[in-house]
């Protein structure tokens, strides 16, 4: 079972093999964490994403990390669900984002990975529910990844992720 850490910070500066971005289906870049990762990785990230898109909600695809700082070698793009009240399978799609990202990480031989809080920004997924889904899914998904770091952009997200991590 991997070690899971919760931190507040800039995901583009993490000392991990791979970062996950909360992408849109085009993989061409967007706002929030996706925009930050695209800016740090440079224009080749959008070119590579466009070449393999579309990525359906709940799925994940990988590209090189391009200009992101070492040791980051890969970016895994995953598309979260747009929150529509919770009755349209949003929780399962979100859980699939984490499962598929770990499966792609295993295919790449990744040992350490950083995740943002997927779908909690403009996609509107309630952050408290998203934190529980993230932790439950990451704990229950078999993987060879040794370190999973959940990187919160702000203090409130870090607190929600930490509370979910503390519950068993």
Mean pLDDT: 97
Question: What's the total count of β strands?
Answer: 6
Tell the overall outline. Answer: globular
Level-1 CATH class name? Alpha Beta
**Uncertain spans:** none
Order of helices and strands: EEHHEEHEHEH
Quickly count the domains.
Answer: 1
Number of discrete helical segments: 5
Query: Major sheet: size, sense and barrel closure?
Result: 6 strands, mixed
Radius of gyration: 14 Å
CATH architectural category: 3-Layer(aba) Sandwich
* Helicity range: 25-40%
Q: Could you name the CATH homologous superfamily? A: Leucine Aminopeptidase, subunit E, domain 1
**Main sheet strand line-up:** 1-6-5-2-4-3
**Proportion of strand residues:** 15-25%
How far apart are the termini?
Answer: 14 Å
Oligomer status = single chain
CATH topology: Leucine Aminopeptidase, subunit E, domain 1
- Derived structural class: alpha/beta
InterPro entries: Macro_dom (IPR002589), Macro_dom-like (IPR043472)
Organism: Amycolatopsis xylanica
Pfam families: Macro
Protein name: O-acetyl-ADP-ribose deacetylase (Regulator of RNase III), contains Macro domain
Topology:
Layout: E1 3-8, E2 18-23, H1 32-41, H2 43-52, E3 60-64, E4 74-79, H3 90-108, E5 112-115, H4 127-140, E6 147-152, H5 155-166
Parallel strand pairs: 1-6, 2-4, 2-5, 5-6
Antiparallel strand pairs: 3-4
Helix pairs in contact: 3-4, 4-5
